[in-house]
Specification:
alpha/beta; TIM Barrel; 12 strands; globular; binds S-adenosylmethionine
Length: 283
């Protein structure tokens, strides 16, 4: 799969539900506006199998909260049985991870991102649950483990240092993420640019690398790796090799694209989706 900008597509981000056990006001819901009926575990397998034939090698499972799907283990098992899929990762709020980590690993999950925006009770996250989730994920060998922190002005921006210490203590990678605008009033009030923080990291880091995907910088510092995700950075989409599938089984070319989503059927639906990628790429 090569899109019209010449990018080879080998990553799939698939949402398996829009239901969630948390209600974060700023959640982008993976860009799904009016999700229809959730696709079945069999349909997910068919979709991923077809996409694998066209070059998908890495799959990220997301939601909603993927772990609230009762058949999540079967979904992971099904994906993992597909030839050519090399990596299955998941982004989760971690609330059910302690209980499911071992079974997920056996089912074929390789690694996890755990959403945790606050160490206090300011945001609807429970730090004890996250700590236990990390412990369980480590124990069974899900690796690497990343903590996702969406940084919000006047809500959790003062917690960055604490979060760095937490990530060090627990030996996980910390991803600091700039807010994506899903509600302009909220965005204007709470968008927190990470440029100044990055300048500090640059001085402290023993090494800095820029990942191809999303031009994310990774700072290697004393006992910790911090990754900075800036969705509005001009080269964010330039090397994007990802395609999305929504929880109701539509191909979605990009988080930001919501019109003309194609119901996944066959090669022609993939082709159509690739033609609309990506509004932000400069060619
Ligand atoms: N429930 C899971 C979780 O908490 O990770 C998966 C779904 S959630 C939509 C996936 C990730 O999207 C979160 O971990 C968070 O880092 C990121 N996210 C959600 N809303 C965002 C926003 N408005 N801007 C930037 N990132 C966001």
């Amino acid at each position: 799969m090569i899109d019209k900008h010449g990018r080879k597509i080998d990553h799939l981000r698939i949402s398996v539900t829009q239901r969630c056990n948390l209600k974060c006001e700023y959640c982008h819901h993976e860009g799904e506006l009016n999700p229809g009926k959730e696709v079945s575990e069999h349909e997910i397998k068919r979709i991923v199998k077809t996409l694998a034939r066209f070059g998908i090698k890495k799959v990220k499972i997301t939601g909603g909260e993927p772990l609230i799907r009762k058949d999540i283990l079967q979904i992971v098992r099904n994906i993992s049985s597909i030839k050519d899929i090399e990596e299955i990762s998941m982004t989760t709020n971690g609330f059910l991870l302690e209980k499911l980590a071992a079974k997920l690993k056996i089912a074929g999950l390789t690694r996890v991102n755990i959403g945790c925006d606050s160490l206090t009770s300011v945001l609807p996250k429970n730090i004890e649950k996250v700590r236990n989730a990390i412990r369980a994920a480590k124990k069974v060998g899900l690796n690497p483990i990343k903590i996702n922190m969406v940084v919000l002005k006047e809500i959790n921006d003062k917690e960055i240092e604490k979060m760095i210490s937490f990530a060090k203590e627990n030996q996980v990678i910390l991803q600091l993420i700039e807010l994506i605008n899903i509600d302009t009033d909220f965005y204007k009030k709470h968008y927190f640019p990470l440029d100044n923080i990055e300048k500090k990291f640059e001085k402290k880091a023993s090494a800095v690398i820029t990942r191809k995907m999303h031009a994310r910088k990774q700072y290697f510092m004393d006992n910790i790796i911090i990754e900075v995700v800036k969705p509005y950075k001009e080269d964010f989409c330039k090397n994007c090799t990802k395609i999305r599938v929504t929880s109701d089984g539509k191909i979605k070319p990009c988080l930001m694209i919501n019109n003309n989503l194609t119901i996944f059927k066959n090669k022609s639906s993939i082709k159509k989706a690739l033609e609309t990628r990506c509004v932000y790429a400069d060619d």
